[in-house]
Amino acid sequence: MQNTAGTGPDAPIDVTPLLDDPYTAYAALRQAGPVHRITGADGQPAWLVTRYDDVRRALADPRLSLDKRHATPGGYRGFSLPPALDANLLNMDPPDHTRVRRLVVKAFTPGRVNALREPVRRVADELLDAMAERGRADLIADYAGPLPITVICDLLGIPQDDRRDFLSWSDALITPDPSRPGQMKEAIGSMLEFYTGLIAAKRAQPGDDLLSDLIAVRDDAGADEGADEGADEGGDRLSEDELTSLAFLILLAGYENTVHLIGNAVLTLLDHPEQLRQLQRNPAELPAAVEEFLRYDGPAPLAIRRFPKEDLEIGGVRIPAGESVLLSIASANRDPGRFLEPDTMDPGRDLSGHLAMGHGIHYCLGAPLARMEAVTALDALLARFPELRLDVPRGALRHRRALRARGLISLPVAW
């Protein structure tokens, strides 16, 4: 790949190498320059930032907005969602971001996450029990996928019968089938109808779950006519769209990132049998290992797209206001300027400052839960199947072809 930083939108880099062999492609880009023009998944040009120091600074730079209203008119088209699903933390700047995050952060306190550890282990053991007699399984479909969806659905109070539908909807959003152009629109419509009905049901009959708590926050704060237009500065109030969007975001992000984290971690261990044996002997080392899995092959290669509120420079490259900026977490976490021998998987390294969960005010809200789920899932799996091995040739495995998610389509294993 050649560095095209500063050449303008008429010569963007094709993203195919980033889909086929991302870490090799990112290494070439880092060496060529700090910022590059690429053609995004939407067909529009974007600025890709690849080096650790630049990515870390940009993640915390208030001049880079998540709000699509700062995008250049006619430029970024993006992910088309109705307002009732789009009013979420991934599209907000302060003060709205501060207000909404403050309301939902209580769901992910250390105490609440620790209280979930035992139920998560119980679900993991049940899934492994179901797999055990077969001697083989697709670890994504049979374990890494069902575990986080069960945990998040329990957290939100989503009935058991509705969970299978959610899996098909989320797959349609994360990796849409090019041969079915209407699939994503149908999934969005179904999800909106589902969340609207679920919120109405929980209003009528609240439960002991996070969604009921959020509904209470919305309603008890005085849902008068002005409440739907937003909140007073510093007030604790949700609009109806924000409430629906929060449920959508918690469920989708809680599922997608964790399933990919678990799947990528297991594959990394199968690729590094000495590390696999070390963790089987010393499961207390799993928390540190999960941090290295996040750095080495994390589930989110890119941070949420940002838009400069004003002309600015990143890595010495001038970026005009309103243009799309993509911050490559995957590239930053493999930057040899920050991590010694970054392409080596080493749980014993200094992992302070890795960016897999973000940095600054948009640091991943569900990070404590994702970490706990990954540690628990790996602990249960390695203890149950000490002879775990791949059930297909390594070259037969395929990752999802997406810039925004790094995860396996399937992971056939045997024991």
Please provide a written account of the structure.
This protein is mainly alpha-helical. It contains 16 helices and ten strands. The protein has helices at about 15-20, 20-30, 50-60, 85, 95-105, 110-130, 140-145, 145-155, 165-175, 185-205, 210-220, 240-270, 275-280, 285-295, 330, 365-385; strands at about 35-40, 45-50, 65, 135-140, 305-310, 310-315, 315-320, 325, 390, 410-415. A three-stranded mixed beta sheet has the order 1-2-8, with helices on one face. A three-stranded antiparallel beta sheet has the order 4-10-9. Strand 1 and strand 2 form a beta hairpin. Helix 6 (about 110-130) runs parallel beside helix 16 and helix 8 packs antiparallel against helix 12. The longest helix has about 30 residues, at about 240-270. The protein is globular, with a radius of gyration of 21 Å. Residues about 1-10 and about 225-235 have low confidence and may be disordered.
Task: Give me the strand/helix succession.
Answer: HHEEHEHHHEHHHHHHHHEEEEHHEE
Radius of gyration: 21 Å
Shape: globular
Task: Tell me the β content.
Answer: 5-15%
pLDDT under 50 segments (min length 5)?
1-10, 223-234
Number of helices: 16
Specify the structural class.
mainly alpha
Span of the ends, CA to CA: 41 Å
Work out the helicity level.
Answer: 40-55%
Number of strands: 10
The order of strands across the largest sheet is 1-2-8
Largest sheet: 3 strands, mixed
Mean pLDDT: 89
Question: What is this structure, in a nutshell?
Answer:
The chain has 415 residues and is mainly α. It contains 16 helices and 10 strands.
